[in-house]
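Protein in question kept underneath.
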Amino acid sequence: MHLYGTQTINSKGHLEIGGTDTVRLADEHGTPLIVYDTGLIRSRARAFKKAFSDEGVPAQVAYASKAFSCLAIYRLAEEEGLALDVVSGGELFTAIRAGFPAERIHFHGNNKSREELRMAFEQGVGCIVADNFMEIGMIGELSKETGRGMDVLIRVTPGIEAHTHDYITTGQEDSKFGFDLNNGQADEALRILSETPGMHVLGLHCHIGSQIFDTEAFGLAARSLIGKMDAWRREKGFVCPVLNLGGGFGIRYTEDDHPLEPDEYVRSMILTVKAAAAETGYPLPEIWIEPGRSLVGDAGTTLYTAGSMKTVPGIRTYLAVDGGMSDNIRPALYGAEYTAALANRMKLPHDTRYTIAGKCCESGDKLIENARLPETSEGDLVAVFCTGAYGYAMASNYNRLPRPAVVFAENGEHRLAIRRETYEDLIRLDAEPAAVGKEGMR
């Protein structure tokens, strides 16, 4: 069993996170409950930043907040001096409400609406990552309408396919994101932006995928982008001050995952960018990265209460919990794997196999196949590790299940970050049903 960050086992045999007993947290806040080890998030953020500063390389580390967004996590990111990557008007609105400095916000997304882009101009975001030609046209129009300029990064697909699941691979040529680097689209994007008043092109951006465990793909992407930037310098006299290599750094979901430490990813990037720039005499650009999952993923643990069990003789025993695909759709969506433990009986041998199933009315609502736990009874507290990224962010009210509460734990204290939804919350947006007379609804 692998423990993460500040996780420990106390004298009662209970799992502790951030110095707080998870059994007490579940008693106080109910389950399902997502507990974030904010000390681990802070240490990861500082490790990414320190890796750049140790090498004396100008950089910007932006939290890719699609992994998990709320007021509290944006405030934590601001406290740690991070920039912020948002991908929708809703994320931008939340960040501004959290008091996050707009000038440190990068606005991403492959289908930004005119209203979302207008919000970005009105709030004065630090840059927009341009994803397609229609968007470039809207940015230019809004710049003219608002009388405000805008820094822009051009997102490109460098043709690099990272070794990851098809659904989370984004850097290959056949992608819904960005301009193709090799067929002239990126060159045309630069031309249009350069001729549009108020636009200031910072450089190139790419994101090649997620859950990447080596540095080879990042190196190939960096060399590809530096090559294009050098061509623009030679052919157009334009030098890009920024190179954004995105995120996608892997984390350990199971014992089969072997991620690198943050400084290993960063140092490899720096070495590659320096080498590629030196080979062509290109001025070293400022390097931007966008860790999301690698900041919050293994900092999150979901606590569930064990419920019913069903044994299929000779096949498996199902252990149902009081959540499931409504708060973690990743296993059903693309076969994501997790590990679990009994948070209230951590010291017992975890040698009984269960298939941990959710309570949604779907046969595919299974969180973990062949989870190893002690012999489990109704009411036990099941902890599923590494749920901090794309768990709550992708949660739904399927089957009208309320979304769970979220707490932040650190240094023996905890605070509520997101309250649990109530049944009243579930119907809050419903229109009142119209009265139906004898003749039926008209």
